[in-house]
Here is the input.
Amino acid sequence: MDSKMIKTRFAPSPTGFLHVGGARTALFNWLFARKHGGQFVLRIEDTDQVRSTAESAAGILSDLQWLGLNWDCGPKPGAEKNEYFQSMRLALYNAHLEQLVKDGRAYEAYETPQQLAAMRMVAEKMKRPFRYRRNMPGRAERGSGPTVLRFEMPFETITFHDLILGDISVAGEEHDDIIIRKSDGFPTYHFAVVVDDHDMGITHVLRAQEHLMNTPKHLGLYKALGWQPPAHAHMPLVFNMDNTKMSKRDKTKAARAAAAAWIKQGNTFEMLVEKSGIPADQLKEFLDKKTDDSRLAAAVGAALSVPLPEIDVQDFRRSGYLPDALLNFIALIGWSPGENREILTRDEMLQLFSLETIGKTSGRFDRKKLLWMNGEYIRNHTVDDLQPALAAFNAVTSYPIKKASESQQRQLLAMYQERTGTLAEMAENGRFFFEEPTLDQAAFKKHVESGNGRIVLQQIRDMLSPVTDWSKEQLAPLIEKIIELGEKRGSAPQTLRVAICGGSVSPPLLETLCLLGRDTTLARIDKILQKIG
Ligand code: GLU
Here is the structure.
């Protein structure tokens, strides 16, 4: 294989967020191109004028950048649409469409959606699949409905060698004359993808298995246009642990279930409108399953404080997964680098990656394993390495740590890296450093209110208040003394902990005191002393 020639592409449709399945497709294309010293192209397939949005395209670029999957040719983040957006390439598609019409390979068709549905029903009644063909009886007359262009597929068997799945054949009678130009004048996905892969010199099309049966259609087009097709490889799908396909609907399903449960508890639809801020008509559509808009799902989840399953890359980003950990994890869905290897750097992935080692059957998305892996990444990186990941996390979340100084953030990372699975868990558990803690009543009763908790807390205050140089060196011997205080050894530290952290769990006291600072520590102790009077 001439390695200089390799060119892959990732071609998302900008109709929503980048989900993990898409990220894996992007990663494998990236790995394959980089491994062979080739080029990786990013192309935005926005031919669906109704569903495509600029916001979605921008989100996809941002998620790919966060994952570190850089592209050689493609859109420029933050800039105007360029020629890597299909909507900017209509002239090219039209030229080739005209050619097909001239060659007699494309023809106009005029059925309305209702007519097509009726034709489909007739076929179903006769227990055969519906195939639209140029020579079929009962085709609609010119002018009777919207005009589309269809491609006349040859009646011959189409066979191709899939680099993962092996030989795939589709017999002539299975083909269907697909629409290649819609009535709005835009090409369909099938047509644009063929023209672009050819025009951009793509050598390898690596995409998910859900596109497998599109490939024979595309090969029919390549042949009619007189072009050499690229090689194809279809990758296994991503499944949940319960064997359902992982899809953005998992999120909407969870949000609807949460809403139903909440309403069952005696709340009303109107209350949910109020709580979520979603206009009533939109909320009704969402609950009636008329839309799967993940933004509505997120708003319902947030209003009811119900976490939704992470599906999109940005969900994982907000949950505090590190890009390298997420990338490492998704690489292993359907790909096995051998020797039970699990933690892999990008360089190791590049070394070990090959299409031969990609599986044929669907891969599982094991959330527990991802959480473990993320924890491993957090533990095994230096604070210097983690700092940019925390900055990227803060950019899309609003935990109080966002407003902390860089030095405070570094201290927090050092303190939590051994004891957190995600950055969000750290940010949540570390809230008390930056805002008044909510008091855990049970812990307060047990460690502060009962026994001689009050006296002990006063003693601790008296020990701490003279310290002016609030440093580890000065505080360490005092912590030793605090351990000796109280009814039994070690109970006084818990009294102090509840007073300053709000609960009985926190990182080691010494580090906690240092980060909280003298003023906050003493103020919190005073507040508790006042409370018990
Ligand atoms: N725009 C298509 C999608 O997002 C691309 C499929 C392909 O890679 O050909 O599914």
Summary: The first helix runs from residue 20 to 35. The radius of gyration is 30 Å. The CA atoms of residues 458 and 529 lie 7 Å apart. The domain at 249-310 is CATH 1.10.260 (434 Repressor (Amino-terminal Domain)).
